[in-house]
Amino acid sequence: MKVLVTGGAGFIGTHIIVCLLERGHDVHVLDDFSNSSEKALKRVKNITGKFIRFTKGSILDGALLSYLFANESFDSVIHLAAFKAVGESSTNPLKYYENNVVGTLVLSRAMKNFGVKRLIFSSSATVYGDGVQMPLTESSCVQDPTNPYGRTKLMMEQILTDLAKSDPSWDITVLRYFNPVGAHSSGLIGEDPNGIPNNLMPFVSQVAVGKRDKVSVFGNDYDTPDGTGVRDYIHIEDLALGHVKALEKQNSDQRGSSRNIKIYNLGTGRGYSVLEVIEAFSRASGKKIPYEIVKRRPGDVAKCWADPSKSELELGWKATRDLIQMCRDAWNWQVNNPEGYE
Ligand SMILES: NC(=O)c1ccc[n+]([C@@H]2O[C@H](COP(=O)([O-])OP(=O)(O)OC[C@H]3O[C@@H](n4cnc5c(N)ncnc54)[C@H](O)[C@@H]3O)[C@@H](O)[C@H]2O)c1
């Protein structure tokens, strides 16, 4: 299949592209490199030995999208382009609503105009909000997400649901990611956060390599076994395969079915606490990882893990890599690329 991957130069995108190319698909990346670099795509070429076509530009640019759709015959779009920093989304919400929500509208409009109606959309477990029973199934009551970033994801899901209802020829798959971590087993691509990492694993890994002094653990008084927050971490290579399975499922399904929007959790089904992650990373890296307990961070939920059984049943997909593997691969990437792609 010929696939347009928006945001394909980012952390998740590069791993998906490797997986797509290895399975014989044809890829075109659209990325404005606002949170990534061309170097990441060169690394993908080193891993796969395959040439990657890319266009530097924004999903907000309707004219550019029209040009791309008019000149390439895409079968599907995997839409990852978005801003994702939860904290920044609270201090600068307009930036998030514009890029994520308006960007998705502009992209969907172009797809509709050119009759490309198969879409895989990057959503997030943050759409579930707080106070929901664990594990989270796709039909767990979607509550109010705890931050503007999460609300952009929920709004985009709602827009896409309306779009699918309006026209049976759309085929849309929404993938709700839990916490993607780790790196490609080659150590050539991985997460390269700008400035202070927002997520736990890249932070822990920067402490292990000596770039930062200690990990701040936000709260140890949650209702969890050791009091620290519990999350469902998923290896990035497992997550990438989930996209390819979803894409191939769309291709093999009959078009025009009544269920033309499907939602799947991509998680392992197992939660780990912050302290368990620190301990596992310390074992994987052989480094001591100092940490200190600080007060809770606004917007964080106590616990969050997936029920991934629907993905297994319908997509034939299941995460296979465990926490130690995630830490080993994150460490391998960190040690070999202490300054990321720079
Ligand atoms: N990493 C996570 O923890 C996580 C969890 C759940 C969902 N997601 C979602 O997965 C997707 C990919 O996340 P990621 O971790 O790879 O982030 P990332 O920042 O590494 O990748 C996103 C890419 O999109 C590009 N981009 C942003 N705005 C764009 C625009 N207007 N036009 C073109 N390109 C644009 C960036 O340059 C970057 O390369 C995002 O939609 C994110 O919200 C990520």
Automatic annotation (TrEMBL):
The record's section on SUPFAM superfamilies has:
NAD(P)-binding Rossmann-fold domains (SSF51735)
EC number(s) per UniProt? 5.1.3.2
Q: Which UniProt keywords apply?
A: Carbohydrate metabolism, Isomerase, NAD
> Which residue intervals define the domain NAD(P)-binding in the entry?
4-329
| Cited Gene3D superfamilies | NAD(P)-binding Rossmann-like Domain, UDP-galactose 4-epimerase, domain 1
Top-tier EC class = isomerase
Which family would the database say this protein is a member of?
Belongs to the NAD(P)-dependent epimerase/dehydratase family.
Protein name according to UniProt: UDP-glucose 4-epimerase
Which species expresses this protein natively?
Answer: Idiomarina aquatica
